[in-house]
Each structure stands twice: as C-alpha cells, then as structure tokens.
Amino acid sequence: MYRLRRVPALLLFLLVVLLPLAAAKPRIVDVGVFGQRDSQRITLSLEIPEGYHQSFNEDFFFFELVDPAGADLGRIDYPKGTDTETGPAYYGTISLSAPLPPEKFRSTSAQTGKIRLHYQLCDEAGTCFLPGTVEASFSIPAPDTGSFSSSIGGFKGEKGIWLMLAFALLGGILLNIMPCVFPILSIRALNLVKQSSNDKKLLRFGSLLYGAGVLASFLLLALVVIILKQSGELVGWGFQFQNPAFVLALSAILLVFALSLFDLYLFQPPIFGSKLAAAGSRGLVGSFVNGLVAVILATPCTAPFLGSALGFAFSQPPLLIIFFFLTIGIGFALPFVLLGFIPRIIHRIPKPGAWMELFKETMGLVLIATALYFFAIFGRQTGAQAMIGALAFLLSLASAAWLYGKLAKPTSSKRQRWLSLLLFVILSSAAATIFIDPSSWKSQEGNASETAMAEHGGEGVERIAYSSERVETMIRSRQPFLLVFSAQWCSVCKLNDRRIFATERGKELFQRYGIQMVYGDYTNADPVIGEAIKDLGRAGVPVYAFYRPAADKPILLPELLTFEKLEELFSKADHEAETGETPTAQPLGDALFF
User: Fold this and answer.
1) Of 179, 239, 539, whose CA–CA distance to 373 is shortest?
2) ∠ CA 528-534-540 to the nearest 5 degrees?
3) Biggest alpha carbon distance in the chain?
4) Does the pTM of the predicted model rise above 0.70?
5) H or E segment at 94?
6) CA–CA distance, 116 with 73 (Å, rounded to integer)
C-alpha cells in the first residue's frame, strides 16, 4: 500500500523532469560551408530554446562529422558567450565553426555530408539535463573549375595570370604615390638632383642601383612568404607589421636615418675598398639603400589594383610568388629608373643650392614623424609599460649616433672610425638588452576589433565588431552591410577612415541607405580575420566588401574610396531591394572604375 502511494509522486517527478528534458532540445537553424576548396570551414548555427542555456564545455558541447565516415573536423571555434558564476554560457542563436578536412572533399562535383551536434542544456534554476544529440545534413557545391576566375573578372587560365601580372605591375607603379612611401622617395629625388650634375653614366648607374635595392627587398619578401607558407603560417601583405619587434626595429632605423639628414653624423664605412668608398661619396650606396628602405615603408600600403594581384599571388606555387613579387618591384622602381635614363626631366627641378639643405632637414622631420607613427603602433601592440622601455632605447640609440658623429669625423683615421663604429654597436646593443623586455609585452586582451572601436571614440559611421558568426547571420538575414578589415599600421586604411568613415557625411550616407559597417581590426595577427581576407581573394588590408541584400557574393571595393562611388553603390543596392530586381553579376574583385 505504501508503494502504491509513492506512484503518483514518482509520476509527478517524471512529469517535471522528463517532459522538460524532451522539450529542451536545440534546433539547428543552418549548416553552411564557406571558403576555397582546400581551406573550407563548416559553420553550424543553432537556436537554444527560451528558458535554457548551454554551458561552455568542450566535452559535452561540440559537433562532429558523421558522413563521410572517419573524417575529423579541425578545432572548433566557439563564440564568446555570456559570463556567469559557473563560466561562459550560450543563449538564443549562436554559431560554431570548424575547418573541414580537405582530403575528404576534393571531388569536382557537388557533395553532401552529415554532422552530429552534442549538447547538454540547463535551465535557469541551474538544473542540467542528460546530454543529447541532433543531426543535420549539409552540402558542398561543385568548385569553380576556373579557379580564381571569379576574382579576376571571369578571365581563366593564362589570361587570368597575365591580367594579374598587369595588375601587379600597375599596382607597383601606383605604390609610389601612397602616403607611407613619400618620405623615402623624397630623399631619393634629392639624391637624383645631387647626381644630376654628374655625368649621365653615373646617374643611370645610381638609378639602376636603386632598382636593384627595390628588387632585392621584394625578393626577400617573397622568400619569407614562401617559407612561412610552407611552415603553415597564414601570411599576407604587411604581415611583418603585426610583429612588435619588427615595428620597433623599423622605428629605430627611421630615427637613425633621420638624424643623418640633420648632419648629426656622417656614416663612412671604415673599410670596404676604395671603389665602394668612392661610390658612397657619390651617393650610389645611398641609392641602393633607398631602394631597400622604400620597400619596407611601402608594405603597409596596398595600392589600387595591387589587392587582387597579391591575393592571387599568395595562393600560387613558390615560383609564381617570386615572379609576382618581382613584377611588383619592377613597377615600383620603374619611375625612378626612367628618371635616371631621361635626365632632362630632372633638370626641370631647381638646381642644387641652399634650398636642398632646407629640403633635406624637412625630410628629416618627416622621417621622425614616421618613426613616431610606427612607435605609436608598437605601443598599441604591447602596452604603455613596454613603450617606456622602448622610448629609453630610442633615446640611447640617438645618443650613440651623436657620439659616433663626434668621434668618426671625415678627417679621422681608419682605426678611429673602426673604434667609433664598434662603440656605437656596443652601446646600441647594451641599450636594447637593458631597456627592451619582450616578456613584458602584453598581447591585446579581448576582441581587438571592439578595442579599436573604443579607441576610435564612436565618431562618424557606427561600427559593429567583426565576428564570422555575425557576418554569416547578417548574410542569411539579407541585411546590407560593408565589411571593413583595417589596421593601425595601414596608412591607406587611416586615410579612408579620416576622409569618409569618421565624418558626419559618411555617417549620414550609411544611415540614409540603412547600411551597417562590420569592422575587423588586423593590427595584430588574427587567424580568423586572416582566413576571411584570404577567402575574399585578398592578401592584406585594407579590404572593403559590400554585401547586397539580393546577391550571394560581395562586391570588393578598391583600396581608395570616394563618397560618390559609395553612394552610387548603396543607391543601386537600395533600388534592387525595393523592386526585387535580381542584381547583375559582379565579379569578386576590384570595382575597377571606382
């Protein structure tokens, strides 16, 4: 009789526990596959029932491939979640993503697969139910047999390669007018004016040496890219500026270079042979060094046409990467090489005189400003404490250069110049050892894009921090938005930001057409953003991708933006949305006529 009286209580317990358990089941909203065939990611979007949440626990919350059998996904990327007393928790609609194993999906035809989601939901009272699973199918469309054809306006095979080479050459030429290259090219122009009074052979030889310095730098860059690609690193144009040590070293080089323009010291090699010393006195060694430094300063910039060419080059075999980089170098060096062979153009510049000293010192100030610009980037990457040590190092370096200038005078003996150079190296190395401590460099905490937006101050166009899940959600909801990938070391990015995005006119333009901006900061290395840039067919920042409500693929905008063309693009997308008109095909590449 006692046992019978316990039956209703048992039934009530089962009703309270098991019925919610049956209802507490996440719903798979969508399963999508994105990226190129050899670097695809699968994204799973799921909706957690109201009143429940999923705790972050990789043992009870993950998804796996069921079909094809025996295939393992890469590491799963989880969203940030909501902080609770027991750890991160997920509510509402969220997305998980993971790399697909390329060896299982190399077929030239469309394929299907199946995934299984493992979950364990909890209610608001803190009760967690038994783990469960949900399965869903997905499909992978057939790859585009034209490979990169969608990114180069429909040209395939050799035509596409030659078009990209033309872009590389033209982009290299246009690099000369980018703001980050201006200081060093001004110094190069000053050298040409000095050399113009010499014979034509010397002028031509100096121009060729400048071109050789440019090509040497581009060849070195190509080799570094190839080595990093072979080691599995994700690299792109300007990737070296994501390394704080490189940024600080560049600041130091620019500072030392600037001090020489104020005649604080005159560097004379103690011994390199009489011919090299004579060449140095005629500025030929300086021509080669100018070529080397110009390329270093050019890498934060992406000139028009260069974005597509680099995106194509970075996906090619090593030999083609070298070929493309050298083509960019030829374009970059071409204007100054031509000046050396057509000296009558140089003769139109005022003749050497007192103005050259003023011009040289002005360029010295510009170089110091450039060094401060990169030093500020270093501080952003490492924190205020690291900036103090780095500032002490730069001050010590300037002092060592001043001391070298006092000891190693043109009239000094070779032995004294050797000892002065050795003292400079010792003092500089000691300062670097004492004041620079890489272990104290703090990596950026939290979402880099959110941090960058907070520093921006909220002026101009309203920005939404980038995440792959947010982009995929906005694409599915047919919401128009401009995806922006930028970096603090990218001068073209900052130029567009000041001219357009940070202005009231830009804010009004975006609000009028209901366009949102999704902003991703690439100042520091970020594999998720790097992969997204690669998927868009680009190799570096800036990247501007406009997603229209009625189109499946974005339009990639050029590196330099204008209000007129943005308005034209937004207006056309707005008209398509209102009329239901199917948008005309637009290649995933530069809008060439912007």
Assistant:
1) 179
2) 95
3) 120
4) no
5) strand 93-99
6) 12
Taking Cα atoms as reference points, which of 494, 260, 239 lies closest to residue 368? 260
- Tens-place pLDDT, residues 11-58: 554 444 444 444 578 888 778 776 655 567 788 888 888 889 898 888
Is residue 253 within 8 Å of residue 184, measured between CB atoms? no
Packing angle, helices 200-230 and 284-298, rounded to 10: 40
Helix or strand or coil: residue 30? Answer: strand
| Tokens 């912007």 sit on residue | 594
**485 with 522: CB under 8 angstroms?**
yes
pLDDT digits (tens, 9 = 90+) for 518-576: 999 888 878 888 888 888 877 778 899 999 886 767 888 888 888 988 998 898 888 77
Contact 252, 397 (CB under 8 A): yes
Q: What is the spatial distance between Cα 314 and Cα 15, in angstroms, rounded to a whole number?
A: 60
Whether 378 and 390 have beta carbons less than 8 Å apart is answered as yes
Among residues 96, 46, 51, the alpha carbon closest in space to that of 74 is found at 96
CA distance 292 to 215: 8
Q: Residues 454-493: pLDDT tens digits?
A: 555 567 898 998 988 888 888 888 889 999 999 888 877 8
Q: What is the mean pLDDT of the chain?
A: 75
**For strand 481-486 and strand 516-521, is the pairing parallel, antiparallel, or unpaired?**
parallel
| Residue 355 main-chain phi, psi, to 5 deg | -60, -30
Helix axes 157-174, 318-341, angle to 10 degrees: 40
CA 550/CA 580 separation, integer angstroms? 8
Euclidean distance between CA atoms 581 and 564, whole angstroms: 23
